[in-house]
Amino acid sequence: MRPSLFASIAATPFLLATTCCFGQNAAIDCFMARSECKEYINKRVWITAPRTTVPMCRAPGMLPTSDCKDVAARTFIVRSVIAQSDPIRASFEIETDKGATAFMPLVNVIHLSLRDPVAAAKEARAACERKGAPAIGMTVIQAHSTCWGRPFRRTRSTTADGIKELHNYQFGDLIFQDGSLSQIIERSR
User: Which residues pair with 81 in a beta bridge?
Assistant: First the structure.
């Protein structure tokens, strides 16, 4: 019987600590072994990492540095999860679109998505078009209901001229004067 992935990973605090930093709940849940990565089995997954390749190995349990090659596959089907006594060596058994079988180190789960990133981007663009962009004169609530959403930071200053709020976004800033959008600053993407 294969060792429990949960037992192996729970005994390795370093692995838990390093995976928790990524903020991707599916990856953390998988590594924490609540589901032992079963949500990926027999599902098509997409690589969302900015890298163009991920390591694919000829046998399970290999580290990415040993006898593996980087492959540019962007999607594949996970057939099984193969636990190892050393959790860093756990692997996904995968099937490529050409029908080949390979093994991907499980640590790469942080780069996987069960959603097609191209379809997700199209959906996001369509939702953004429906919501529209911020426009001069909008209230704070109206601006937050646009495709820009909520800012990652808000700064408020009170002066003799009134209340000024600066809302910072990754791609620009919105400036409100007395609750009304007075300036839109867009950064090039």
Answer: 92
Residues 137, 106 within the same domain: no
Q: Which tokens is 119 given?
A: 């379809």
Amino acid at 174: L
How far is the CA of 166 from the CAs of 153, 157, 175, in angstroms? Answer: 8, 9, 5
- The number of angstroms, rounded, from the C-alpha of 114 to the middle of its chain's C-alpha atoms is 10
- Residue 124 domain flag: no
- Give the single-character DSSP code of 52: S
Is 175 within a domain?
yes
Average pLDDT of each block of 10 consecutive residues along the chain (189 residues)? 38 36 43 64 83 74 71 81 77 86 80 84 89 95 94 95 95 95 90
pLDDT at 18: 35
Domain boundary among 56, 80, 115: 115
Claim to verify: residue 148 and residue 109 sit in the same structural domain = no
Other C-beta atoms closer than 10 Å to the C-beta of 134 total: 21
pTM: 0.54
> To 5 degrees, how large is the angle CA 79–CA 58–CA 10?
60
DSSP code, position 110? G
The confidence score (pLDDT) of residue 124 equals 85
Helix segments in the chain, DSSP class H: 5-10, 13-20, 25-31, 117-131, 140-144
Query: For residue 28, what are the domain limits?
Result: 5-115
CA distance 136 to 29: 43
